[in-house]
Amino acid sequence: MLSRQVRPFFCKFRVRCASSSGALEFEDIPSPKRLPLIGTTLSLLAAGGAKNLHKYVDRRHKELGLIFKDNVGPVSCVFLADPEGMRHVFSKEGKYPVHIKPESWLLYNEKHGYTRGLFFMDGEEWLKFRRIMNSLLLKGSLSWLEESCDAAGEVLVKKLEGFKNIEVPNLEQEMYKWSMDVIVSVLVGKRTYASHQEELDVLVYELAGKVSKIFETTSKLQLISAKLAQKYQLGYWKRFENSVQEGLDSAYSIVNHITANYKDADGLMAKMLSENIKSDDLNRIIVDLILGAGDTTAYTMIWILYVLSKNPNVQKELRNQLLQNKKTPFLKNVVKETLRLYPVAPFITRFLPESVTLCNYRIPANTLVVMSIYTSGRNEKYFIEPELFQPNRWLRNNHEMNMALQQASLPFGIGSRSCIGRKIAEHQLHGTLAKIVDKFQVEMCNREEVHDILQMIIKPSQNMRFKFNRIQD
């Protein structure tokens, strides 16, 4: 039996989304009023433009329901915020799931004849390499991966100790550096990373700066047509193109350095070589793994520090529980609750290979479905007082409620094309957060209200500033 708060809503939409009998037509799906030629563009601009797209879509869901249709540029798509419907989409995504890829990156790849890693692969090629990476990063004993993440976490904590209770300058840069350190440590293994950490530091600092520039220039191309920006060689495109080239060069420099100098490394690269992956394929998969990890975990950790500094009672409770049990479930629940409120990817997209019925509407094959993770994670019918940061809502003593919450909050997605770096991200967030809370009381220095904005991922509206006040032993 579902809990009283969840049962009426959950059961109502489970029946509607699972049944195709008497389903309504695609044309019947609610949609916002549209103006000729420009559609709903003015409404989006009135909501604050592309940086507030997640909030604009959230408002549309509140107006129109858990499913509505609108256009993303010239493409008609269905926005879906129903947890049962989203799981149905993942179950019908097919053998070779297809999602939207950033237009600017596709144009760059085409212009330069550049082949990319898993995110850009489709069909048989994607399936072949995804199965290999699943076996290495998502299955079996991953103690080696956890140890590698911990080694990089120690480097960050030592760096924070050096600021001696003063505000950390360039925190975003430090978090990018930490994200890159984790990936490099995973690539070479804990032992090799620890032995060569100082020489790797030079390369990783350079890489972190280049990766942050890629996402900064990519997000600016969201505001205009990347194709037109390329055609007319606008400054936006030139800066993006230069940043990608520099970022790729830097990532390949690290891969080449590891290959040439660390023959006895026992991390992910060695494990991939044992799978007989060709050198070119190995390099492009690793480079994309490096680029993909840059901003996602960096900003997730910044959001975690933000909510803990805003909730010192939660920070104290976490510290106390860690003293009693280093594996306390409360640690994971703090991360889960942060990702519910601030999922770095607020939308997950799929082009479905067959017709399906979602929320009692027939959806034709090849329709773009945009799953609104931001909205489903803040649905008050699943989450009591959804705007509040409450890690205890994830306690497993209420199993039925917990299962409903798990269905509504999907920051890593599910299905065969879910985030390949999920275990890396979870290990590095849990391990590093435990180390930070053990040693510091985190204090936010920002005085103005912080909002969440969309620039490729969910980011704070201003540079986050923190002090890490050393706790006396």
UniProtKB/TrEMBL annotation:
Gene3D superfamilies the UniProt entry points to: Cytochrome P450 (1.10.630.10)
Keyword hit for Metal-binding: yes
Q: What is a GO molecular function of this protein?
A: oxidoreductase activity, acting on paired donors, with incorporation or reduction of molecular oxygen
The residues listed in the UniProt record as binding heme, with positions renumbered to this chain, are 419
Which UniProt key words apply to this protein? Heme, Iron, Metal-binding, Monooxygenase, Oxidoreductase
Keyword Metal-binding present in the record's keywords: the answer is: yes
Q: What cofactors does the UniProt entry give for this protein?
A: heme
**Family in the record:** Belongs to the cytochrome P450 family.
Q: Which PANTHER family match?
A: CYTOCHROME P450
Q: What is this protein called?
A: Cytochrome P450 315a1
Protein source organism: Leptinotarsa decemlineata (Colorado potato beetle)
This chain is encoded by the gene named Cyp314a1
